[in-house]
Write a structure and sequence with these properties.
InterPro entries: AB_hydrolase_fold, Peptidase_S9_cat. The chain has 606 residues and is of the alpha+beta class. The protein is built from ten helices and 36 strands.
């Protein structure tokens, strides 16, 4: 697997510009598809890696400067410009120690960004771009605070096509999909107009169609839809475009990160739902639906408003596509393809589970001539993080490795998962570690009924919130149907997590906590559970203290456990060597458990 992901994408007049994360180093670097003499595509624009770290998880790290189509890029607390002219070197223009930047946007002479500022919280700031371009010392760059309220967070920064306005999301501590407002701000005067989410709802991802209309996505307990704000009339109006109750548009959990799940161009609004790209002609209310897996990063060519680029992850490839809105046939054209693997491999593909309420994807280990084994295979239940992330059916090297080793695998949807609408996500509030644990244990019983799994040969794998769920389910498994778990970035006490997690997650975490928090660690110790722990050395979200301590207590109590700290890794593991290490050690741990099951012993009864 050469590259892990296409992380960001922006359209230019010469084609898409995007970042690729290198699976060997974890670095994310900038590439484009411009045709050059004696150069292959994609072409690497500069050697400097891009990284935001805004809100710990990151945000957009680059954008296109209008007219010149130079690129303004972020590397944590530093900002540099990559010229459109290949003969000119990149130039650092800002270096603010202690700051973390994200979402760069150039509007006229101003460079706007979201910034985490030391001892002062988060804000929208701006720099005079011509001035900082002239500085010989980037540490001397001076910023102006455009928007700042203590305890507030900012994201979704965008700008109008004529440079008169910017717009952005703001929300109090917690996740933006809980309750977020849209702010429209005049570039010349800094005058603002705030549109407030009502009825426990959120207004997300502002987007301009012209200087007179600002659109945003309204998500509430009664469903979701798009709204259009007419700036001339100072009035917002509901549009039934995209109205949904039990489906999420885009991936609302990642409002603080980099995604673009809807755009406007000409008479069209284009947005994504699960495995579909929706193109709607607003003027005649005509909708076209394209079946494409995991669409994201929509972007419009600034020189041709009918040309739209986007990223897609299907079961075999990561791709950049384009569509031409000026033609009747909107068949996507492949611009760039990354195969998941450098060499052709046999792949295990998922099927949707449909059995008495189990929701998710089932991967079954089988012979590649199409025949399934005549015996039930050991089964891994895969638990996503978040806890509000969506379950995707894209190919994952880790899952494929477990399947190749002889396991079935179930990628499970449970209370709180994204993709099924706001009500399903918030139903986990006050029941974290309770309802989702019940869902996992219920799924275990139903998988036994389906004869997909066997009692005692079921394993759990999870990371972060998924790790907490795995440990909670293992702890509450009084029938000992689950054999063991392997967890990354784990914790057992979410109340202690409140003191360690990023500030923007604390209120959300508090909302999730039940009145009585389960004693997960105590239950694991009592039953002498078997757990493999993995943790990044520099995890900024979850400290390794809890995992290390629980691992030791389990060992002292007679349980079987291992603890591995991965050097130079953070909350999620980026490097291919680290991922391979975790997979191999997990397989070693699980296979040792299987070898010691009673029915695998030489003297076991037939």
């Amino acid at each position: 697997m050469k590259y892990k992901d296409i992380c960001e994408l922006r359209a230019t007049s010469y084609g898409p510009v995007f970042t690729l994360s290198d699976s060997q180093t974890g670095a994310t670097c900038l590439y484009d598809m411009k045709q050059r003499k004696n150069q292959s595509v994609p072409y690497r624009r500069c050697e400097v890696p891009l990284r935001s770290n805004l809100n710990e998880y990151g945000a957009a790290t680059f954008n296109v400067i209008p007219i010149t189509e130079d690129l303004v890029c972020i590397n944590k607390s530093k900002v540099f410009v990559v010229p459109n002219d290949d003969d000119k070197p990149y130039k650092y223009i800002i270096d603010k120690k202690g700051f973390r930047f994200g979402d760069p946007h150039v509007v006229g002479d101003w460079l706007y960004m979201v910034a985490d500022m030391p001892d002062n919280g988060q804000a929208i700031i701006r720099y005079n771009l011509p001035q900082v371009m002239q500085l010989s010392d980037p540490t001397k760059a001076e910023h102006e605070i455009v928007a700042h309220k203590r305890g507030h967070f900012y994201g979704g920064l965008t700008s109008g096509p004529n440079g008169k306005y910017i717009a952005y999301n703001t929300w109090m501590a917690g996740m933006a999909f809980d309750s977020a407002d849209v702010v429209l701000q005049n570039v010349a005067t800094n005058a603002i107009r705030v549109m407030i989410g009502v009825n426990n709802g959120a207004l997300l991802w502002p987007n301009f169609d012209s200087e007179s209309n600002l659109w945003f996505y309204s998500e509430g307990i009664k469903g979701s839809h798009f709204e259009r704000y007419d700036m001339a009339k100072d009035k917002a109006e509901k549009k039934k475009v995209g109205k949904r109750k039990h489906i999420d548009i885009g991936d609302p959990y990642w409002i603080m990160g980099n995604q673009r799940f809807f755009i406007l161009t000409g008479k069209f609004i284009i947005y994504t739902i699960e495995d579909k790209l929706i193109v709607r002609d607003i003027t005649i209310s005509k909708t076209l639906t394209l079946d494409i897996d995991n669409v994201d990063l929509l972007s419009v060519d600034p020189s041709n408003k009918n040309k739209v680029y986007f990223k897609s992850d299907d079961q075999l490839y990561k791709r950049v596509y384009s569509i031409d809105l000026s033609v009747d046939n909107l068949a996507p054209t492949v611009v760039y393809t990354i195969p998941y693997y450098e060499e052709p491999l046999n792949l295990f593909l998922p099927e949707v589970i449909k059995y008495e309420g189990i929701n998710g994807y089932l991967y079954q280990h089988c012979a590649f001539d199409g025949g399934y084994h005549d015996r039930t295979m050991p089964t891994i239940i895969w638990l996503h993080g978040g806890p509000a992330m969506r379950v995707h059916k894209t190919i994952d090297f880790r899952k494929q490795a477990y399947l190749e080793a002889g396991f079935n695998l179930v990628d499970l949807v449970y209370t709180g998962s994204g993709g099924l609408g706001r009500n399903y996500r918030v139903s986990l509030y006050n029941y974290w570690g309770v309802r989702d644990v019940e869902d996992v244990l219920d799924a275990v019983n139903k998988l036994l009924e389906m004869e997909v799994a066997e009692e005692g040969s079921i394993f759990l794998v999870g990371s972060s919130a998924g790790a907490y769920l795995a440990l909670g389910a293992l702890a509450d498994d009084t029938k000992n149907l689950i054999c063991a778990a392997a967890v990354s970035a784990s914790f057992t006490d979410p109340t202690a997590l409140l003191n360690e997690c990023p500030v923007f997650e604390r209120e959300y975490t508090e909302d999730l906590l039940p009145a009585v928090v389960p004693d997960v660690a105590g239950k694991l110790i009592k039953k002498k559970a078997h757990v493999a722990f993995f943790h990044g050395e520099f995890d900024p979200v979850v400290s390794s203290t809890d995992a290390r301590a629980v691992s030791k207590r389990l060992t002292d109590a007679g349980g079987r456990t291992v603890f591995h700290e991965l050097k130079d890794e953070g909350h999620s593991f980026k490097k291919a060597d680290s991922i391979c290490f975790v997979v191999q050690k997990t397989l070693d741990f699980f296979q040792h458990e299987l070898a010691n099951l009673p029915n695998n012993q030489p003297n076991a009864n037939p």
